[in-house]
Amino acid sequence: MNKVSLGLAGVALAAGLVIGNAIAQRGPKLDAQDYVDIRQLIDGYSRVLENCANNGNDYANLYTSDGTFGVSQTWGSGAKIWFRGREQLARAGGGGPNGCRPPGPNPEYHIVANVFITPTPDGAKSTSTLLTIQNKTTEHGDPIHWEGGYEDTYAKSPDGWRFKSRVHVWNEVKWTDRPEDMPPRKLADE
Q1: DSSP one-letter string for 78-110
Q2: Of 69, 84, 131, 141, which has fewest CB within 10 angstroms of its CB?
C-alpha cells in the first residue's frame, strides 16, 4: 500500500469514529412504528378502561407483568402506587370476583391529548393531558373537565409495547394512599 492509500484509510477510519460517536451520543431512538404502537396503546387505554373489557383483564394486559398504576400531585415525583401487578390492575380496570362493576348513571369518557413520547435507554416515556367528558347533558352541554395528565413509562415486550407504569398527575387533588380512601367526587365543586 502506498502512503496515499494509508492516509485515506486513516481519514476514513477517523471519520467513521467521529460519526459513530456522534450517533451514540444522541442516545436511544424509536422508529416510526414504535411511535405508532405506543400511541395505539395510549388511545386503546380509554376504550378498555371505560368498558371493563374481559372483567378487567384486557386492562391488565395493557401493562407489563410487574406494571403499576399510581397517582401524584407533582410531575416527576411523589407517586402513590395504587395498583401493582396483573390481579390488582384487573381490579383497577373494573373487574372483580363478581364480574365488572356496574357503570355509574353518568359515565365519564377519557380523552388523552398533547402526548409527548421520548425514547429512554429501557424503552420510552411520555407525558400527556387528560380530559374527561361526562355523559350528562346540562344547559351548557356535556361537561368536559381537565383532570391533569399522565406520566407514563413503557417497555417493549414480546406482545408489543406495554405500560411499565402509569401515573395520573393532578395537582388539584389530595390523593390518598389507597383508592378506597378517596372521598366521593363533587364535580360541581371542581
Answers
A1: -PEEEEEHHHHHHHHTT--TTSSPPPPSS-EEE
A2: 141
Q: If we measure between CA atoms, which residue out of 63, 119, 132 comes closest to residue 92? A: 63
CA atoms within 13 A on the CB side of 150: 27
Which residue has 387528560 as its cell numbers? 130
Domain around 136? 31-189
- Please state, rounded to an integer, the average pLDDT across all residues of the chain: 85
> Per the structure, how many domains does the chain have?
2
pLDDT for 52 equals: 86
18 to 23, 55, 133: CA distances (angstroms): 9, 54, 52
User: Residue 91: how many CB atoms within 10 A of its CB?
Assistant: 19
Q: Verify that 95 and 35 share a domain, yes or no.
A: yes
